[in-house]
Amino acid sequence: MLVTRQSRRQVVIQGTVFLVLFLAAIGVLAKLSTQYVYQADWTYGDRNSLSPASVKLLKTLDKPLTFTAYVRDGSPLKDPLTRFVSNYQRMKKDATLEFVDTDKDPEAARRAGVTVDGELSVGYAGRSQNLQQINESAVANAIESLARSSERYVVFLTGDGERDPLGQHNFDLGEFGKQLQDKGIKVETLSLAANPTIPGNTSVLVIAGPQAKLLPGMVTIVRNYVKHGGNLLWLADPGSLYGLEPLAQDIGIRFGKGTIVDPESQLFGINDPKILLVPKYSDDSAITKDFSTATLFPAATSVDADPNSGWQAQPFLSTLPRSWLDTGPLEGNVSYDPKRGDQLGPLSIGLSLTRALKGGDKKGEQRVVVTGDGDFLSNQYLGNGGNLTLGLNIFNWLAHDDSYISIDPRPAPDLTLILTPQQQGLIGFGFLLALPLIFLFSGIGVWVRRRRR
Fold this sequence. Notes:
Helix content is 32%, strand content 20%. The chain is an alpha/beta fold. The protein folds into 2 domains: 44-145, Glutaredoxin; 151-398, 3-Layer(aba) Sandwich (Rossmann fold).
């Protein structure tokens, strides 16, 4: 190529134009980076970003959210707390984080009730709650508790063999009761024999599987509570209603005369014919909308609604088509027998009922949930599948807290490395024998080449 003065001038001009355009592009990108943020989480299960449930919960907050971390100056906890809270600050622009040095201002820590270094206080609407175990689930529980416009009282009937919401036996609901308390819900028990009055501030009344017949006067108290607009959760079981038949008539429901059997449960390693697995739900129900985790029901009967009862009924739990309501004894070879009255599936085992309230002290919508099984919330079965999440969704719906949703802790499934004995032997052979031999022969090879020079 012939280099002339004109060609050199063109090269200089081209280089100058390129440099100017390059710097201009860098400037534009720098400006855009201050206005738009893009973040990608490549961790397993997106553990370094908030779940969609947390994001939806934050969108329900109309007031600023504050985080106060009580950390000593120079503590290694400061950076992890900053990164953790930054996830919330990206989703909610008015969320703030403040650090308080517990050495320089111990009085502030005492006023806040702080007992350990690194404790995080979550504040909203003039109230706050301290967290010692800091994770997404704990923060979500704190936000739900603080954001409730008023206290929610859930009253469990006791005295007739019902499941205890604070009990520790397998059939009790102690673990679930603790979850409700963590959500800011007040859990109370009531024996109608000792105190024949349902408190006026009751948000939800729970009948959790009585094992003795309720006296007619007790049933009348419960019926009057429902008649006057009270929200109800009835966790029934196959068998006797223990004197609650008039209540079933009032809300227009009928229970099946038997226990549901699902042969498809055996495909999941479940050998007990009474145990049901519900893998799919209807998006038409607010309780199970966007809910997809399978739930386990140890023993259930069907629940049907009377279309002329005056209630709007909607099934939100249904069995698979191959299931049936077995009216005989579940012994030996269990099979479907239409001659004795067995009923083929799909069958409803959970109903939500609503009706409009007009006049009186209570207005709006009355809500009732009836299930054909109460064991799914017991201590023994609460940890199976989505049982806990479903139970919390039911209570939030009954208490008219539709926007509050349950958020399960997201574990990090790749933190534990499980190796077979063969894999362990291969790794041991590689590190203890193969690698040393490779290094040895490599060293000998280098030494031999140098000796030949």
